[in-house]
User: What shape does this take?
Amino acid sequence: MALRLQCITVDARDPLALAQFWAEALGWKIGEDINDVEVWIERELGDPKNTGFPDILFLKNASVKNVKNRLHLDLRPDNQDTEVARLESLGAKRVDIGQSAEPTCTWVVMADPEGNEFCVLSARPN
Assistant: This one.
């Protein structure tokens, strides 16, 4: 295939702070070139090329987020309750974007410190 996903880009008022939240949340590391305009995080797998996983790039944008995301991350934990509590301790908050009206909702919608929504899914059965 001649095309691969390089990174997911997120606008941020404070790229470093948001990168630090997501690096801690995902167990990734912050890249070496940090500046006030962009910060990226990557997954370390013992693979120097990090193949298979896109980086997440945080770009400085002074505007405040004021609408629901058009794209969000779905995270699959080993234990949903444990991960939701851990993410809350890092600064994430639970948010309701309408899922409470869904009687069979098995995911938790959260927002990172700048308000970007993401979902913590139920644990996948073994």
